């Protein structure tokens, strides 16, 4: 596990804690930044560290979002009736009802997503390389389509989330800090995970899965857990994000495969996949670039995003961290050691 | 050294489509010894190895490891029993450094759920890694990315990884192929030491006659998928059928 | 759902309608999938922009239609334009991803798919469009089955195009070079084949095939900027089910997919038509996985 490094961690911590008070107008944008950090980190568990490039991880974001919404609503009323009214019935939640629902919702979202991941594992983990990427992409696309036809959870019309029983500022602060905590939690968890045998094993699977099998590594077990870990944190992020937007709907909000779903890949690649800091760096860069330049593209921003992905993949695949490692290997401990010197 | 067989192959046949790769092959590998497997290219040596370690189902016959039928087991299961193989084309985890390559090669025989999340490098394991890397002469390069090592060094690393796994039996697929002749003597010496000091049974495919004749106590010779001859190195070297099929072809 | 099945059994003539519609549309799927099989087999590039090439071809024909030119002229036009476009894409990006790992080409072409879909959206708007060919629509079986003549024409053209490509691959110098490169690129290089040119041609040919499929789709069905991804997935379903280098398989799988989609849409409801495609994809992938487990072989 990484030691606390004041030069590296402190500025981020200070930024995270102070941001909503320094720039109150941008609280939500910064909250989304933390969600992006979480996205990139969770994608990298699979894509970067284990070599299973999923194009459908966004599925767990949407699953968490729906699970949380259902739990929150079920806390006070019948879900079918609530969604059928399509926001017509404005049920007022008391503080207690709301927060209990939210807490249980987030926990259920995390665990539920992880369980779905474990269950899906057997279907997709036999798929290697491109088949895995396309298979997972298929799962995410299918989920969006199917949720749109499931009337009990609002169908294509979506669900209006329970209204926060307090001021808008209070809501913004609450969810900001929850997002921040989720991102920090994901980071700490990944940092710990990569320091264990688990980290080694998934790296081994990335480099040569057949060899790992031949050496007796329980590959399926590691792969399933890695996916469940991704899904666990993505479920939390989905639960939070659904509450932030206040309205969820299958195609654009819950399963945005070609936006958030592809952002996670782009961010990890930009920062450098297979490293702990690469995804974090990539998320910061990508989000800042996006927030500052988006409006100047006059509608061509999505084209620009596609171009960014192409350029990133084709010309700069190793990402920033990978490039630094190539440039300064000795800084990363890649050195020839004389035996005497090591003693 | 005992003569109790650790691997017993009885009447194994394997064909790919119409091509018969192994036909009714029977052999035994005694525990604690070094057994060689020779034969011309395409005689089915690697196929036999693959059958033993579980890469593909066999058509008929039986394969036993310490009396346990393993011909229906899958690769990781067999590896966890303590029966390991190296590859003809060296296979290492090429984006990881040598230490990490070694650390992940620890035995997975009795790993439970909690072992998966143990610290990756505890002290005794690291000492073992250093000792084995020193044993194969890679200590100085242990922090380099293994994919950047030369072919011979990768081969040595793969061998060290196999030792790290503490197997009972090690199946080596052409350990000296592609290795610089001056290194070969060192490798033979290390193989022998692994056999004597660590008590690992070796089963070796080898084309280099000098190497195999010096090392093995028993040698089996395959040709066209069938067992041609077996015996001590002297017996095999002087067997007319072996000379015709293989040695004489040079 | 059961009501719809009841309709099919009560009035078998509906089956003919669904079957024919499925075959007509399936022929275009097979055409696009053949292009994918080509680039996948020859260059090992998994082209996720396949469906967006199809849409581009469709918009070329549709746009010509709005300019007063009959959309059937869009067929040769989109073949030519898409060939050039494919060549340009190859030179600009595909050339650089060929030697990289498999995910690279997939992700790079996914980026391309986003660019193309969004660009089409900005240029032509997000509305669903059909190119009007003004062919008569005829009824058969006492008006129970209606078929637009354009569908028959398109079906015939599909067959002709497929035949042309097959003959080209078999007999022309370039076709032979492509097949040689597919088998062993290094050997082909050693024998003096300019594999870079072969790759460029293959990719451009694929784009042209997609363009043709798109032009036909724009006349017999609908096009929309964001429908590309579904067409890509269809191509992947077909190629994964049939395997590349297996032209009869691709044709059968393509026609079969078209028919299954029509039935899925009719029986389950139109909103499930997309889901049917994806469900088929997952089904095919799982089936393949089981197959692979059975024939597990070792890589030396």
What does this protein structure show overall?
The complex is a heterotrimer of chains A (343), B (250) and C (300). Chain A is 70% helix and 1% strand. Chain A has 343 residues and is an all-alpha fold. Chain A has one domain. The two termini of chain A are 24 Å apart. Chain B is of the alpha/beta class and 250 residues long. Chain B has 2 domains: 1-82 and 167-250, Rossmann fold; 92-166, no CATH class. In chain B, 34% of the residues lie in helices and 25% in strands. Chain B is built from 9 helices and 10 strands. The two termini of chain B are 35 Å apart. By secondary structure, chain C is an all-alpha fold. Chain C has a two-stranded antiparallel sheet with strand order 1-2. The longest helix of chain C is centred in the N-terminal third of the chain and has 31 residues, at 13-43. Classes of the chains: A mainly alpha (343), B alpha/beta (250), C mainly alpha (300). Chains in contact: A-B, A-C, B-C. Chain A binds chain C through residues 53, 55, 123-124, 126-127, 129-131, 133-135, 137-139, 141-142, 145-146, 148-149, 210, 258, 262, 265, 269, 299-300, 302-303, 305-310, 313-315, 317, and chain C through 46, 48, 93, 96-97, 100-104, 106-108, 110-116, 118-119, 122, 229, 233, 236, 240, 269, 271-272, 274-275, 278-279, 281-282, 285-286, 288-289, 292-293, 298-299.
Distance between the termini of chain C: 51 Å
- Helix and strand composition category of chain C: mainly alpha
Share of helix among residues of chain C?
A: over 70%
Helix-residue proportion of chain B? 25-40%
Helix and strand element order of chain C = HHHHHEEHHHHHHH
Q: Give the beta-strand count of chain B.
A: 10
The major β-sheet of chain B equals:
6 strands, mixed
Overall body shape of chain B: globular
Give the topology string of chain B: H per helix, E per strand: EEEHEEHEHHHEHEHEEHH
CATH topology of the largest domain in chain B: Rossmann fold
Q: Stretches of chain C where pLDDT falls below 50 for ≥5 residues?
A: 296-300
Q: Choose one word for the global shape of chain C.
A: globular
Q: How many strand elements of chain C? A: 2
Biggest interface: chains and residue counts? A-C, 40 and 44 residues
